[in-house]
């Protein structure tokens, strides 16, 4: 009947009709429906929404994989164990230079593009609002340049 499950326990998924939320697969079950002239079986996944724990059910064709837990997180943990991260202390001069770099037109446009991509990826208005604020910052930056 079923040769495989498309998603496994702890996989992160989203609905195909993106609602902007991530869900973790916490279980699954097989359901068989029998009608007068027809019968079919389906896999129903039990999901938990990441940010608030809301539990919902969904069929396989309603979902798309965001990440496979073992492939994604397991790979990160393996990489972290294979090397050490060195942290260097920054001088005050480096910090001041970094702060002034943060206000260049290029860096402002980079932040704007990042927020726009995040808004598109997660379908989240928070990132749209942040992008508009960065755009306002760019306008203020250009006004300062024209005054000098």
UniProtKB/TrEMBL annotation:
This is Histidinol dehydrogenase. It comes from Gottfriedia endophytica.
């Amino acid at each position: 009947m079923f040769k495989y499950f498309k998603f496994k326990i702890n996989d992160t998924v989203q609905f195909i009709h993106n609602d902007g939320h991530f869900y973790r697969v916490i279980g699954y079950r097989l359901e068989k429906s029998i009608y007068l002239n027809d019968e079919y079986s389906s896999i129903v996944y039990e999901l938990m929404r990441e940010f608030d724990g809301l539990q919902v059910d969904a069929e396989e064709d309603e979902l798309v994989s965001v990440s496979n837990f073992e492939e994604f997180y397991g790979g990160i943990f393996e990489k972290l164990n294979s090397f050490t991260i060195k942290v260097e202390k920054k001088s005050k001069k480096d910090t001041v230079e970094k702060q002034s770099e943060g206000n260049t037109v290029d860096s402002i446009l980079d932040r704007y593009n990042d927020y726009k991509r995040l808004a598109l990826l997660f379908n989240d208005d928070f990132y749209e609002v942040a992008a508009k604020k960065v755009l306002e910052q760019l306008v203020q930056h250009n006004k300062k340049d024209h005054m000098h």
